[in-house]
Write a structure and sequence with these properties.
- The longest helix is centred in the first third of the chain and has 42 residues.
- The protein has 15 helices and 17 strands.
- Helix 10 packs across helix 12.
- It is α+β, with helices and mostly antiparallel strands and 493 residues long.
- A hairpin with a 5-residue loop joins strand 10 and strand 11.
- Strands 10-11-12-13-14-15-17-16 form an eight-stranded mixed β-sheet, with helices on both faces. A five-stranded antiparallel β-sheet has the order 1-3-4-2-5, with helices on both faces.
Length: 493
């Protein structure tokens, strides 16, 4: 701004103050004249004292009403903005929870009410039009529900999938939440219990999963499961153990999204299939999954290189570390030193092609493997934690000369610790009923165990969530494991 403009503004400001002063002075003289007239009327009138008291009461009532009105409207919620802009984003986003409407309707809960509240994850589809999200939030607020987190997933065919993390009163049934969403225009509503892990916002969770995947190739299936919630992940090798191409092992580089199924190319060869029958995937979720898979492909094979040195009761030292496909020659040499009985207890039958089977077991894509080596570097034991759909299998192979020395129990304890870290609900071992060593190692965990014996094959399930035993085995898993083992044995014969 130039000096001339400054000077003009200063003159205008000075004239404005002069006019305002004149007006204020005239108003003051008028007020004095009015006050003098009223005073003469009150003092010399017949009802002067009564009129004076009535005037004082009127002033007090007016002041009290003004104070109440000011306090009420100073705490009013801000007016709602039109359209879906009340989410803070027009595309796929994670927004801070619009919790003010819920709290204003339900009141500020005290510490006891918050402690008794239940966490829910709810997803519903609404029309992509102004006010749709506001109507949904208002409907939830009318039931005393606090919205802690919100994600929006735009759909290519129109509409938007809104995913909420809710804190609801403990006594409020989930069916009531579903009805509230439906009454506000929501459709295809899905709801399930949430826990403290879901309190982390989505960008933070994705960055954490990407970090874990970057440090360990075995983390990719677990990262996908934690990102998507309840889902089943299958890693299909390019070829079977017999060398024949596997059906469904091919997938385009960009991947395929088909409602409740995602298919992507596995960086280690073959394909990754992610299924969630109860809830279709959105393009936003597909993009996140594809980004994690691309990160895994760029980083290549990798495992943590940490190791622990343990002293056995007899005084010998062994080293426990993570193993991968680079340990295949040492694992094959250990196979050659093992007796047929030891191999039969581990693989439930003769193994015609140990090289291919070991290559599958040592792949980080199918689980995690621990190796026990002697001070000279000789591999004497392997422990496997294998991802099998929604459940997890543990398996041990100990060289004959090193059995009954506590190595198996130590490996099993560490495998279970890895399963707990991966938030697995249970682990199971498939062995023969005559394998007393494996039975003793599972019992030594001190966890609730379930046993299933069928045709001489024993399935032992250890529950990691501390649930009481006798509540049944994981749905469909032990029989599926038994069938897979029988088919494998038949093909190798």
């Amino acid at each position: 701004m130039t000096e001339r403009t400054h000077a003009a503004a200063h003159r205008s400001h000075r004239h404005h103050h002069w006019r305002r002063d004149v007006v204020e002075l005239a108003a003051l003289f008028c007020a004095v004249a009015v006050a003098d007239g009223i005073a003469n009327l009150v003092v010399h009138g017949p009802s002067g004292p009564a009129l004076l008291v009535a005037s004082a009461v009127a002033l007090l009532v007016t002041a009290a009403f003004h104070t109440w009105w000011a306090r009420r409207h100073s705490h009013a919620p801000p007016p709602a903005r039109a359209g879906r802009s009340d989410t803070g984003a027009a595309g796929p986003a994670t927004a801070p929870a619009p919790a003010a409407p819920a709290r204003s309707a339900a009141g500020s809960p005290d510490d006891g009410a918050t402690a008794a509240a239940a966490l829910w994850r709810m997803r519903t589809t609404v029309r992509d039009e102004p006010g749709s999200l506001a109507a949904l939030c208002t409907a939830l607020a009318s039931h005393g529900v606090d919205i802690l987190n919100l994600q929006t997933h735009p759909l290519p065919e129109g509409g938007t999938v809104d995913e909420f993390l809710l804190r609801a009163p403990q006594q409020l049934p989930p069916a009531e939440l579903t009805r509230a969403a439906a009454g506000a225009g929501g459709r295809d509503t899905w709801i399930e219990r949430a826990d403290a892990h879901d309190l982390v916002d989505t960008p933070t969770r994705v960055l954490g999963l990407a970090t874990r995947t970057a440090l360990d190739a075995a983390e990719l299936p677990l990262a996908l499961r934690q990102l998507l919630g309840r889902c089943t992940i299958h890693s299909i090798p390019a070829t079977s153990l017999s060398g024949r191409p596997n059906v469904g092992a091919d997938a385009p580089v960009e991947g395929v999204l088909e409602a409740t199924v995602m298919r992507l190319r596995d960086p280690s060869g073959g394909a990754l299939t992610v299924e969630r029958p109860h809830l279709p995937f959105t393009p936003t979720e597909f993009a996140r999954v594809r980004a994690l898979v691309e990160l895994d492909a760029r980083l290549g094979p990798r495992i943590p290189r940490s190791q622990d040195v343990l002293t056995l009761p007899e005084g010998n030292e062994i080293t426990v570390r993570r193993a991968d496909r680079s340990d295949l020659p040492a694992a094959r040499a250990m196979h050659d030193r093992c007796s047929e009985r030891t191999l039969g207890l581990r693989y439930h039958g003769p193994v015609a092609d140990a090289d291919r089977y070991l290559d599958h077991l040592l792949s980080p894509r199918f689980g995690r493997t621990l190796a026990a080596t002697t001070a000279s570097g000789r591999l004497v034991a392997l422990g496997h934690l294998l991802w099998d759909g929604d459940e997890t299998e543990v398996a041990l192979l100990i060289e004959d000369d090193w059995q009954r020395r506590g190595i198996g129990s130590e490996l099993l304890r560490r495998l279970v610790a890895l399963a707990v870290e991966a938030r697995c609900s249970s682990v199971y071992a498939v062995t023969q009923s005559s394998n007393t060593g494996m039975v003793a190692a599972m019992r030594g965990l001190g966890l609730p165990l379930d046993y299933l014996v069928e045709d001489g094959t024993l399935v032992i399930t250890a529950r990691l969530d501390g649930a009481p035993a006798g509540t049944g085995l994981p749905h469909g898993l032990p029989r599926a494991a038994l069938n897979a083992q029988r088919q494998q044995a038949d093909s190798e014969r």
